[in-house]
Write a structure and sequence with these properties.
By secondary structure, this protein is an all-alpha fold. Among the domains are: 224-577, Ankyrin repeat-containing domain (Serine Threonine Protein Phosphatase 5, Tetratricopeptide repeat); 598-724, no CATH class. 52% of the residues lie in helices and 2% in strands. The protein is built from 33 helices and four strands. The chain has a two-stranded antiparallel sheet. A two-stranded antiparallel ribbon has the order 3-4. The N and C termini lie far apart (123 Å). 36% of the residues are buried.
């Protein structure tokens, strides 16, 4: 064959390929249209063959070379490679190592020559499911390239999803109904947008002008102004407001106005919307006001106070106590920002705002809101007030349990930075403006109980860090009227939480951490008892029910801790806690609850024996079976504390009962140790000294308020210490 014949043959082959490509594109377009109307997906990708993959990889290499050397020979070579490909629809499915296809990479390189070559060779600019060239160009804001693509047929009315700046890779896999196959889910499978919306999202004003002014297209079903407000595109927002002022009060498909979208971005957005006639009292379908949205979604923490002050000055003060469909006020939303980390916000301007500055912003905003007659006692549908939520937030963050307390309005734990001084100040503001410290949640827990419960969630190794802060918060609650024994349920929850704290302390293995927690519990006990915790509460619930419901008596709960000790020296901790309770008025003589008599029998008779319920009886019952507990004298020291503090009649009644029950109690599964029997016999057979009896008489005369009244006695300090410390 001659050269001319070869050239003619090549031209015929190229012509036949172009005819086939054109026919294929037409059939593919019809196929996509039918799927759009009758099917579930508008775009069905074509799986590339190995030959196509190799060819596209060669084109990627040529494109990369063109970025350093502009050589027309490289374009010619690219055309030759494209002529070898019969299935152009499969080309967009081949991705490079960065996760982008050939046209996307050419857009990112701003290579119009390469794009023109692809277009002339038959690649469709409007075919694909992810980041089409025009959409991607609008996203990056390349105005000349936008005009180029529009000139060559790119459709500005197509709605397509986008994975950029991330690569087009699956974000999750969804199994089929029968689990034989898995469906890959991509970011671009959702949130499909027009090209202009991507330009608005990045605030590329000139691109937005090009698409709207020159194209004459206003996508009313997508609400560009709302989109600009949602993404904080201030320049685009101003332009769109100027050309379509009627959109300022329009409602989008979510039921939101532009103001409700814009409030999260700060004062200048809100101020511009207000100047252009926005309805400042607009609400979302869930009844949230602009204040709700500001406190929930604020993007720039430095804007929190100024934006709040501006909103309240526009008449929104009237809606300061408005609640959403969940019953939450704006104050509920603001409380969620207390102790939030300044570095957890999406805007870059927070780099100059340290944590202390942000904490101050939140506290000042809280003071501002309360100063505008905000009601801190509004209860939401879950029974939570703002004070409850403040403490629950702390508990949520400090909790070591990933499945701990969760609230739908709370961000992730990692977004918080605990500062107990800030927590204390926020609590003080709420309480000073009328927050009720004794209101219970829907679950029946008061703020004091919630705070005590949060102490259970604190890592014991961090107690030195939180010790003083927690005590200050607890003291603040009590000083503002929180009553530990306000109701039977509150009293029972307080006693139960103290018992759990003590139990947790006894189960620790590290001696240093255990000692730290021991002192913390002493301080908590002293504070609660000084603020009205009733250590002598009685109940009509009998012992069998007490085992499941828990006791309401502090001394009973403390002596029951004997079953949790790891070593005899742990009795010294229980001794210290019990001593504090007695110094603040705990009476060891009383029987906190009634007890049924038990059936006893001997060789000759069966009879009923009354069994008293004083705390010392519980203690003796707990320790009688364990010989090892008497090592070191710690158990005896605790028993001697009761021996020195109880009235004569009650004490010896308990000792005699203990001696008797050690022989006849049918419920005991073990024989009492010889050490226990010997100790009880010794105490029961020797009367106390006149000095000890006189001291008990002094206790009774002072109504056992040793801490409050001992220092008023006209006695020398050594004798006062003898009385106070029950030595």
């Amino acid at each position: 064959m001659t050269i001319s014949e070869i050239n003619n043959t090549e031209e015929m082959r190229t012509l036949s390929q172009k005819v086939w490509r054109g026919l294929h594109n037409q059939l593919s377009g019809i196929y996509q249209y039918l799927h759009l109307v009758f099917g579930t997906s508008a775009y069905q990708p074509t799986a590339p063959s190995d030959e196509t993959v190799n060819l596209v990889n060669s084109l990627f290499a040529l494109l990369q070379q063109l970025q350093s050397v502009r050589d027309s020979a490289l374009i010619v070579r690219a055309v030759e490679l494209l002529n070898q490909c019969e299935d152009l629809d499969a080309l967009p499915e081949v991705l490079n190592e960065s996760g982008f296809n050939l046209m996307q990479q050419a857009v990112l390189h701003d290579d119009t020559d390469f794009l023109l070559m692809l277009i002339q060779e038959g690649l469709n600019l409007n075919k694909g499911k992810c980041s089409l060239p025009l959409h991607l160009t609008c996203k990056v804001g390349n105005l000349p390239l936008v005009k180029f693509l529009l000139h060559h047929g790119a459709d500005p009315n197509m709605e397509i999803g986008m994975c950029y700046p991330k690569p087009h890779l699956p974000v999750r896999h969804v199994p089929s109904r029968f689990h034989f196959l898995e469906t890959d889910i991509f970011s671009c499978d959702s949130d499909h947008q027009l090209p202009v919306m991507y330009a608005i999202q990045e605030d590329h004003l000139q691109v937005v002008r090009c698409l709207i002014d020159e194209g004459g297209h206003w996508p009313s079903h997508r609400r560009p102004l709302h989109h600009a407000c949602k993404y904080g595109a201030f320049n685009s927002m101003r332009y769109l407001t100027e050309i379509r002022p009627q959109e300022v009060r329009a409602i989008d498909h979510q039921g939101w106005t532009p103001l409700l979208h814009a409030v999260q971005w700060g004062r200048r957005f809100v101020e511009y919307m207000e100047e252009n006639g926005s309805d400042m009292h607009a609400r979302t379908p869930s009844e949230q006001t602009a204040l709700h949205l500001l406190f929930q979604k604020v993007c720039d923490p430095s804007e929190l106070y100024d934006t709040s002050r501006f909103l309240l000055g526009t008449g929104l003060e009237e809606d300061v106590n408005a609640v959403d469909c969940s019953g939450n006020s704006a104050l509920h939303a603001l409380i969620g920002q207390v102790n939030r980390g300044a570095d957890s916000f999406p805007t870059s301007s927070t780099e100059d705002l340290n944590q202390d500055d942000f904490n101050l912003q939140v506290l000042e905003t809280l003071r501002l809101l309360l100063g505008h007659n905000c009601d801190p006692n509004i209860v939401n549908n879950s029974g939570i007030t703002s004070l409850h939520k403040l403490i629950l937030t702390f508990d949520f963050v400090i909790s070591n349990d990933p499945a701990g307390i969760t609230l739908e309005t709370l961000p992730m734990r990692e977004k918080y930075c605990i500062d107990l001084d800030t927590l204390h100040d926020a609590m003080g503001m709420l309480l000073s403006h009328g927050a009720d410290p004794n209101t219970a949640t829907g679950a029946g827990r008061t703020p004091l109980v919630l705070l005590l419960h949060s102490m259970l969630d604190v890592d014991p190794t961090r107690l030195p860090e939180f010790h003083s802060g927690l005590l200050h918060c607890l003291q603040l609650l009590c000083e503002k009227g929180a009553r530990p024994s306000d109701s039977p349920s509150t009293h029972s929850a307080t006693i139960s939480t103290i018992s759990k704290l003590c139990q947790r302390c006894l189960l620790l293995r590290d001696p240093a951490v255990k000692e730290t927690m021991h002192h913390f519990i002493k301080d908590v006990l002293s504070l609660l008892l000084s603020q009205g915790l009733d250590s002598n509460r009685r109940t009509l619930i009998r012992r069998k029910e007490q085992q499941t419901l828990g006791s309401c008596n502090l001394l009973i709960e403390l002596v029951k801790l004997a079953q949790h000790i790891r070593q005899p020296s742990d009795f010294s901790f229980i001794h210290d806690w019990t001593l504090i309770a007695m110094q603040w008025g705990a009476d060891p003589d009383i029987e906190p609850y009634p007890s049924d008599p038990i059936i006893c029998h001997s060789q000759s008779s069966i009879f009923l024996k009354p069994k008293s319920t004083q705390p010392v009886n519980h203690f003796m019952y707990q320790i009688q079976d364990f010989v090892s507990l008497f090592e070191g004298g710690h158990a005896e020291k605790l028993l001697m504390l009761f021996y020195s503090a109880m009235d004569h009649e009650a004490l010896f009644s308990c000792l005699n009962t203990a001696k008797f029950m050690s022989r006849f109690d049918p419920t005991s599964t073990k024989t009492p140790s010889h050490g226990f029997i010997r100790l009880i016999n010794s105490l029961g057979s020797h009367p106390r000294s006149l000095q000890q009896i006189s001291r008990v008489a002094v206790y009774k005369a002072m109504d056992r308020q040793l801490k409050l009244r001992t220092h008023h006695l006209p006695l020398p300090p050594p004798i006062q210490n003898f009385i106070l410390n029950i030595q």
